[in-house]
Design a protein that fits this description.
By secondary structure, the protein is of the alpha+beta class. It folds into 2 domains: 71 residues, no CATH class; 63 residues, Nucleic acid-binding proteins (OB fold (Dihydrolipoamide Acetyltransferase, E2P), Beta Barrel), CATH 2.40.50.140. It contains 3 helices and 5 strands.
Length: 151
């Protein structure tokens, strides 16, 4: 068996496990650079804790299935090797999915803001719970979604 395949699959699996959510008000991605965001101002009406869950976990599932299939095929010969690969792929896919969910699911806040124009919006974002009812905030709304920051 080619050890480089096992190393590549293990690296992909590790990458999936290391995916952590960064969605706080100060977390930007490279696609946010040089992007225009619309800014509005308002007052926080309420903040409540929520849980953000990743509904799809394709990276963990695919990496786990690949690694499990490669490792499972090492057992047995002929039909036994094929059965080991199938069982390994299924087990690895389930394990990879669970690992990615644990790595990406996180606590967040639902922030309800009364904007200065009289409308009310709600934004869910991660990061530390720094905002309180009555805080003056700016809401930045762009291609990457919205974020709420104290001013």
């Amino acid at each position: 068996m080619n050890k480089s395949w096992i190393a590549a699959a293990a690296a992909a699996f590790t990458l999936a496990a290391g995916c952590a959510a960064n969605d706080g008000p100060r977390d930007y991605s490279t696609r946010d650079e040089r992007a225009i965001e619309h800014v509005t101002y308002g007052t926080v009406q309420s903040v409540r804790a929520v849980r953000v869950e990743e509904k799809d976990a394709p990276v963990g599932t695919i990496a786990g299935a690949a690694l499990g299939g490669i490792l499972g095929s090492q057992f047995g010969h002929g039909a036994g090797s094929a059965a080991g690969a199938v069982l390994g792929a299924v087990g690895g896919g389930l394990a990879g999915n669970a690992i990615e969910h644990r790595a990406t699911d996180h606590d967040a806040q639902e922030i309800v803001v009364r904007l200065d124009d009289g409308s009310t919006i709600a934004v869910v974002q991660g990061g530390p719970a720094e905002l309180r009812p009555g805080d003056r905030v700016q809401v930045l709304n762009g291609s990457g979604g919205a974020r709420v920051e104290r001013i």
